[in-house]
Design goal:
This protein is an alpha/beta fold. It folds into 2 domains: 1-72 and 99-208, Rossmann fold; 212-310, Helicase, Ruva Protein, domain 3, CATH 1.10.8. It is built from 14 helices and 11 strands. The strands form 4 sheets. The protein has a 5-stranded parallel beta sheet. Strand 3 (79-84) and strand 4 form a beta hairpin. Helix 1 (3-17) crosses helix 2 and helix 11 (243-259) packs across helix 12. The longest helix is centred in the C-terminal third of the chain and has 17 residues, at 243-259. It is globular and about 70 Å long. The structure holds adenosine-5'-diphosphate and magnesium ion. Adenosine-5'-diphosphate binds at residues 18-21, 44-50, 174, 178, 182, 190.
Amino acid sequence: MDAAELLSRLKANLCQVIRGKEAVVERFLVALLANGHVLIEDVPGVGKTTLAKALARSLQADYRRIQFTPDLLPTDIVGGMIYSPKTGEFSFRPGPVFCHVLLGDEINRASPRTQSALLEAMSERQVTSEGERRELPRPFLVLATQNPVEYHGTYPLPEAQLDRFAMRLELGYPDEESELAVVLDQRSTHPLEALRPVADTLDLVAAQEAVCRIHVEASVVRYLTRLVRATRDDPRLRLGASPRAALVLFRTCQALALLRGRDYVVPDDVRELAVAVIAHRLFLDTKASYSGTRKQDIVIELLDRLAPPT
Ligand SMILES: Nc1ncnc2c1ncn2[C@@H]1O[C@H](COP(=O)(O)OP(=O)(O)O)[C@@H](O)[C@H]1O
Ligand SMILES: [Mg+2]
């Protein structure tokens, strides 16, 4: 199956279960194709768990969920050595992170030490325990959820950690017609139960490789790096976007081009993904944050100021 076929099948499958959210589902697929992890910041009950499950089922992938709580330990995520009285030996018991699709729910409720165990696994795609390196499966996608930050009893993710997420997405409430469909869809059973696999994890890995072959003209690369660099000169920001952001923007633009059936990136791909890829990595200075400036508005402003390549 080629990448285009895989994408249209996945999109159709996910949209069958998640109603009225085509744009978010597309972005989610773009992140997946770019081999990136996704942070979803949203209120409960808007379909986050359902989305992760639908993806795993569509790809016949191993799915795990971790509920983050203040007393969760790093070993609860990555695993650890356990002693077997029978053999008198220690052996490694893999934690839930050894899967294809990992849903980390309410990641900001765990202690910073536990958060960093997950985030390390995310960026290294491996786990080191007792000096031994263990590779995570391929593909490996983390979908982490976070309550809107005002909630109490949370440890907000530090800058360095947020940078590990390829994108930050919001699902948001469905519109009236979609909400009606959600209710009617579940009259007797949940649509997840009827969802059939449309591909497997090897198809996804092949599609991720195809993404890297999408052409990006030098002028477009310059356009996207200039955008990233402009965040570092903005007086309202205490921290701009890193070169990692530029790399992710490059790769996700390739993925979006593929999703749209093109074998080359256009400047509009950069525009379309800029907020989802860049905004969460920025930190407002105190004055800007008190005056209610939004990070996404800064990204859009910078885009508007930058002349796209012709
Ligand atoms: N946009 C949507 N489309 C389809 N179902 C939805 C949507 N939003 C919420 N639901 C349904 O609401 C219920 C709760 O969703 P869930 O995925 O558990 O939410 P969350 O993980 O965000 O708290 C599920 O039955 C889910 O199917
Ligand atoms: Mg949930």
